[in-house]
């Protein structure tokens, strides 16, 4: 992902040693903050869907796939950016160059395909509710997700053959660099194929499908859950304005819009640099482009909590469970350290009776 903006020089970003102290502090702080929040948030999304039975819906299966892809982007693209800023060169060696480059593109492409998949699922659920009972099932969603990851995994194998480590001399200092093997003329067709398949086409499809969904919701509002009875659907939809009968659809539309906006600076920069004799590589603007990408992968859990009452409640329940489990572990450690005194045994006895033991 980082390599695309500097294809003119056929090298990755962040290899220079002349980063200012101000840049290092700001970049490390912001990247660490965004990636930290994003990693925790996306892990919470996966745990919520896996642990809560009522959250295991077809749509949420796609959101788990998106969360896994975002985790991959944050760890494979965001975290190495911190070491780039601190050390001014590639520090992960040849195997790290191949592996990290591969997982960067795999995460990016899988997230794009996951967004496309839940967009199609929402279109079928809203515009074709009868067909949705057979098409929008959890088992079908799992098969589609497996297909998405299988295809993107195979597609991204080419980056294992396009990446390599090279030594550069800068100010009489030898620096290790994770770069592309091929020249700019060979890389551009690959990039524009990637750009079209995983950015332009998904956004065009999303624009068309969400336009059709909006038209249906305005003219004849339908429920977001196709498995409910038709009479219940009618009662629920007559109580609320058309656009508010499908909060899940609104939430997913926001995810798509942010995907388009936050990826736009980087995509635009690469397209522009592809036609310039000397690529535009301003350090601060490149940092801005990176931060937008990391933010796109980190912000989705925040959107789920802000716009979905079910997700918000499930998140709170999971946090309570994790907190109680942590307290339980601490009590157990104290008990074993105290030789299981009578008071400690009583505490453990109360603890095992259930969540009402918070007075301990």
From TrEMBL:
Domain of life of the organism encoding this protein: Eukaryota
The keyword Glycoprotein appears for this protein: yes
GO CC annotations on file: plasma membrane
UniProt entry keywords in alphabetical sequence: Cell membrane, Disulfide bond, G-protein coupled receptor, Glycoprotein, Membrane, Receptor, Transducer, Transmembrane, Transmembrane helix
GO molecular function terms noted in the UniProt entry: thyrotropin-releasing hormone receptor activity
PROSITE patterns: G_PROTEIN_RECEP_F1_1 (PS00237), G_PROTEIN_RECEP_F1_2 (PS50262)
Segments passing through the bilayer: 25-50, 62-82, 144-162, 197-219, 240-264, 284-307
CDD domains per record: 7tmA_TRH-R
Function summary: Receptor for thyrotropin-releasing hormone (TRH). Upon ligand binding, this G-protein-coupled receptor triggers activation of the phosphatidylinositol (IP3)-calcium-protein kinase C (PKC) pathway.
Record's protein name: Thyrotropin-releasing hormone receptor
